[in-house]
Design a protein that fits this description.
Length: 317
Amino acid sequence: MPEPYENAKEAIAPTGAGGAMDLAMSEAETVRADGRGPRSLWSDAWHQLRRDPVFLVSAALIVFLVLIALWPQILTSADPLRCDLSKSQQGAAPGHPFGYDTQGCDVYTRTVYGARASITVGVCATVGAALLGSLLGGLAGFFGGWWDALLSRIADVFFGIPVILGGLVFLSVVTSSTVWPVVGFIVLLGWPQVARIARGAVITAKQHDYVQAARALGAGSARMLLRHVAPNAVAPVIVVATIALGTYIALEATLSFLGVGLRPPTVSWGIDISNAAPQIRNAPHMLLWPAGALSVTVLAFIMLGDAVRDALDPKLR
């Protein structure tokens, strides 16, 4: 975590060895157990994460999913759009361990390729919502006044929109079969949550003594915001964004299941689940594999977010 002004430290250090300066610095640094000096919040969090089995398992799953999303050829060389109606709804066969769907497409290949669309939507939507929400919420929390009041009321409006109903209305008029309309919709409804978290974190961070000392020494608003406030307020945003990523992947699958999210020929777990649902009694394998892949992916990101939250919040240690 970035250090405060050296002059700012000196300016408030005389208030006493156990005064406000020590309290402010204790929030940003932790003394190493081996006595080798202070460790920043981030290095201390990484030190804990490396020893957390939940983080290690979830991170390994996510790395694996990202790899097959980028290079599905690692696991299969077949074409997910190549189908044979003569094999419709057939079970597992040599070279086709998951069987075939209604159109005679290989369920294994489609499950592998489905990771690409779902993870792309989740990552892009999370990055977009985090950047937009952090920017608006950070500015509102730092400057306050009418900008803060205006943003809060706008966020309240978006919080009042039901996600599924909003998706049905917004995406039903979109004809594109790419992932970007879904990403845009999720960002549109996802940024207020991040904005509120960022706003609260910035309000807390700007009350620290080293920020007040920097202000007293003539530091401009931009320097204080970028150098001292933002780095000390970014941890809650990272935690919320990590957990939200899994939620956004599940939301994309839900919208695709309802027919307003991703559309064929895009390969998506939500589309495959939608196509398999009417045949669950006759061919349950069509539903179980894409649904299982979706569940594992969402669980992995939620577990990762919980581990990161525990590592970045000293109160939970």
